[in-house]
Design a protein that fits this description.
alpha/beta, 5-stranded mixed β-sheet, 9 helices, 10 strands, 20% strand, globular, binds adenosine-5'-diphosphate, binds zinc ion
Length: 297
């Protein structure tokens, strides 16, 4: 049975794991994300010497996913300037000598949920993380969806509510995008306290649900995913789920009501794999790379 190396490369932390072909995390460690010169040797030290059939990386973005371009496998114009242009996939392939599967962190998480979690058996699923940033991963037919670059559903423009105490979303690029109005840091900027300390404040979560529902309605209208899975730190506020479902129903205005929308409790669901969807998805990217190279899982 093959073992896969899995790296969930995040802006603040790197989750490294060895995962079995059955999706069992055998060993895991978490390292802080510093600069490539400092962090990459630490990552390689974890993976080196382990009997890995392939490696998978789910990486913070934007990243190059078009295999026909030299940017494939590299981190692109990230605000984390030390990582800009870093060819992370090639670096692991050369250092470890195994095939490397590569995608965005959120596409990896979506794939993890598809392979082992709440989107098993579905053809299409969307995974939205609402944390420090907001990111959308999409799986179609068991494959992460890329398109031209990759979806940037976290930066979807949404309508700011007139009574929002935050005059402008906190995204430096967009005055009114989902990440700028609904991420954990935007909640803190709006209400003056970290999101986790605002659990009892109804107005906080009602406004949050209003914004998240706008994005979910757009994803439903454009992608028509069979399920939407919500993860990330902010979604630990479980009271958000009924608020979001009710608001999605209201905003859809009865225009679409069939399919999964008839049972919103099963359609808009929390992430099901604890915090492991990222590494399990990265392992799935590794399994796909292994198969593409003639291996059998
Ligand atoms: P990251 O996005 O950095 O990978 P997380 O998904 O954990 O990590 O998101 C961190 C963000 O989530 C922080 O902005 C924090 O305010 C928020 N957060 C973390 N835990 C909670 C909680 N229990 N309730 C509400 N917000 C939370
Ligand atoms: Zn934005």
């Amino acid at each position: 049975m093959p073992y896969f190396g899995a790296l969930e490369a995040g802006g603040t932390k790197m989750v490294c794991a060895v995962v079995s072909g059955q999706g069992e995390v055998m060993e895991q460690t978490v390292l802080p994300t510093r600069c490539p010169e400092a962090t990459v040797p630490e990552l390689l030290a974890f993976f080196r010497g382990k009997p890995l059939a392939a490696m998978g990386i789910g990486c913070f973005g934007p990243v190059g996913l078009d295999r026909r371009t030299p940017q494939y496998g590299s981190i692109l114009a990230t605000p984390k300037t030390a990582w800009r242009g870093f060819p992370i996939a090639a670096c692991f392939r050369e250092a470890l000598g195994v095939p490397v599967g590569f995608d965005t962190d959120v596409n990896a998480a979506a794939l993890g949920e598809w392979a082992w979690g709440g989107a098993q058996g579905l053809d299409t699923a969307a995974y939205l993380t609402v944390g420090t940033g907001v990111g959308l991963g999409i799986v179609v037919g068991g494959r992460p969806y890329h398109g031209m670059l990759h979806p940037e559903g976290g930066h979807l423009p949404i309508a700011r509510r007139a009574d929002d105490p935050l005059a402008r979303g906190i995204c430096p690029f967009h005055p009114n995008c989902l990440e700028g109005l609904a991420s954990g840091p935007s909640i803190e900027a709006r209400w003056g306290r970290p999101a986790r300390e605002l659990a009892g404040q109804g107005a906080v979560w009602e406004l949050e649900a209003f914004y998240l529902a706008q994005a979910l309605c757009a994803y439903i209208m454009v992608l028509s995913p069979e399920r939407i899975i919500l993860g990330g730190g902010v979604m630990r506020q479980a009271q958000l789920f009924p608020l979001i479902r009710a608001e999605v129903r209201r905003q859809l205005g009865g225009y679409i009501s069939g399919g999964g929308l008839a049972e919103l409790e099963q359609y808009i669901v929390p992430a099901s794999l604890g915090d492991s969807q990222g590494v399990l998805g990265a392992a799935q990217l590794a399994a796909d790379a292994y198969r593409e190279n003639g291996g059998r899982v």
